[in-house]
Structure formats: structure tokens, C-alpha cells
Amino acid sequence: MTSTTPPPVPALSPTAAGPAGAPPAVEVPAVEVRGVDQVFPVAGGGQTVALSGIDLTVAPGEFVSLIGPSGCGKSTLLRVVGDLLTPTRGEVRVFGQEAGEARRAQTYGIAFQQAGLLEWRTVAGNIELPLQVHGVKKKERRERARELLELVGLADFAGHWPAQLSGGMQQRVAIARALAERPRLLLLDEPFGALDEMTRERMQAELARIRHETGTTVILVTHSIPEAVFLSDRVAVMSPRPGRITQLIEVDLPGRLGPPGESGDAPSTDDAPSADDVREQAAFFAAVTAVREALRAGGPT
Ligand SMILES: Nc1ncnc2c1ncn2[C@@H]1O[C@H](COP(=O)(O)OP(=O)(O)OP(=O)(O)O)[C@@H](O)[C@H]1O
To answer: How far apart are CA 146 and CA 136, in angstroms?
Structure first.
């Protein structure tokens, strides 16, 4: 006899629960990329198909890395998300807005491999620049720059000139500047690519902490498998050109710092395992292997 017991009603997740009687509130993704192609014309005729049929959804507060062989379109995809490039086909929405609207609403913070600091402005002056451009009053700018310098561990360097800082310190200033307007989405293109290995690992730990403290959604372009695994909730593996996302690999490292309030077994920044401990976990090596195999399966790197 067939059971007539109704299936259990699934518990509503906090994001799906609306007020009594109201339809459930659906969480708006931080980023939605649908069917994006990017084609560049080539001088003398012809074209380069940089991206083909890209679909990607990033949840609020999530950290996603883009990894793939050189020239596969990682930076192009980041630029499309950041409205620095209009896709040939397809659609991008950022926190429910069309990408151009999101840019005008100052949703983005962007940092690239070169820190790109203005040599004639002090460290604090560089961080204040986007605020100044948008008319924020001097006192408020000073206060925000002070907070950000604290956040990136450069509280004593406000009055220094960029040329007086190491590469790693300059990159921290660039990240502080990208965070100045409290963006909901941080786009990072190889921000640690020019740094030596030790500095790079330290910066990765800093970025994990900054993300944990600010709750910012992050998309990172990187060539480094361990970097992607250390930082990301998911790693998007891309094929050689034309770039497609061939696999999305979830990374779950016990106790690692995650978004605010979701730090796994780690109750606070102080009690979280050290970055070195995270990098020595079996789960870390397993995720590195999974990404490496996905890259190999996608074609030559
Ligand atoms: N503005 C442009 N005009 C023409 N072609 C471009 C342009 N930007 C990128 N491309 C081409 O698109 C392809 C993807 O470039 P992109 O820089 O996105 O790759 P990538 O994966 O970030 O590379 P890398 O890892 O080497 O930095 C490359 O073939 C590149 O030459």
C-alpha cells in the first residue's frame, strides 16, 4: 500500500523566510552572469573569441576565484562583471542591478596586479582619492582612511609616500583604496602576482581576514592554485580560449575564516587556525589536486 504521509515540509532558510503571509524573500545574488560571449575584433580582420557562453552566479559574501590558462579570458570576465567592458552577448547583473547601474551606485571596488598608486599623494591621500572624487567631506575622508589603514595593518604609514613602501605594502594600500567606499563587491585581478612567495602568502592571509571582517563579496583572478584554494569558497576553472567555465569546485577547509558569522569551527579571528595550519590540512591538498585535475582536463595550461 502506498503511504499517504505527506513529505516533510523543508525548514525555511533565514533568507527564504518572509514576514507572515508575505511571499518568501528570495536572496538576490551578488553577481549573475548569463550567456556571456566576448568577441574582440583583430587588426586586419578576423576576431578573437575571448569568452563563450559564460554562466556564473556568486552569492552575497561569497569568495570566488577564476583560474585557467594564460589568455583564457579571466581578466576579460572580471572586466565584464565590473562594467569596464560591455559583453558582445549576454547579461550581467550585480546585486540585482544591471552592471552599469551597479557601477554608478559605487557597488564595486577594483584592484589590479599593479597597485597603481599616485606617487604624488601620500598613502592616506591615495586611499581618500575615490572619496574626494565623490565629494566626501575632508573630516570623514580622514576618518575612513584611518580605519582602512588600521584594517590593512598600515596605521603608521598614513603620511608616507608610495615609493617609501614595499610592493606588498603598496598592494595593501591599493586594496584599502578599493574598499574606501564600502563596496559590496571587490574585483581583484592578480593583486599579489608581482610579490615574492612569502609576501604573497602573508597577503592572502590578510585578504582572508579583511573579507571575514567586512563581509564583502570577492571575485579574484589568479594563476595560483594554492592561492585560489586558500581564499575561495568556490574556484571557477576555465578552459583555454575561448574561455568557458568547465568546473566549479567547492572548497571547504575546516575552521578557515569565512564570511562574517560563518567561520566554520572558528568562533573568532583570534581563535581561527593559522594560515599555515589551513595550508597543511589534508582538505587543502585534496582541493589543490581537484583544481589541478580540472585544469588538466580542460586542456593545456
Ligand atoms: N581589448 C582587447 N582587444 C583585443 N583582444 C583582447 C582584448 N582584451 C583581451 N583580448 C584577448 O582576449 C583573450 C583573453 O584575454 P584575457 O586578458 O582576458 O586573458 P587572461 O586569462 O586574463 O590572461 P592572463 O592569464 O595571461 O592574464 C586573449 O587572447 C587576449 O589577447
So the answer is: 15
Residue 62 has pLDDT above 50, yes or no: yes
- CA–CA gap between residue 245 and residue 266 (Å, rounded): 31
Distance 73 CA to ligand 1 centre (A): 5
CA of 34 to the centre of ligand 1 (A): 20
How many other C-beta atoms lie within 10 A of the C-beta of residue 100? 12
pTM of the prediction?
0.86
Distance 146 CA to ligand 1 centre (A): 37
**Which residues share a beta bridge with 220?**
65, 188
Name the residue of 37, 38, 39, 40 whose CB sits within 8 Å of the most ligand 1 atoms, as the mutation to test its pocket. Answer: 40
The pLDDT tens digits of the residues spanning 116-143 come to 999 999 999 999 999 999 999 999 999 9
Flag the least confident range among 70-74, 113-117, 125-129, 285-289.
113-117
Task: Take residue 8 and report the three cell numbers written for it.
Answer: 516533510
In this structure, how many other beta carbons lie within 10 angstroms of the beta carbon of residue 190? 19
In our burial notation (b when 16+ CB lie closer than 10 A, e otherwise), range 6-40 reads eeeeeeeeeeeeeeeeeeeeeeebbbbbeebbbee
Are residues 67 and 247 in contact, defined by beta-carbon separation less than 8 angstroms? no
| CA-closest residue to ligand 1 atom 16 | 73
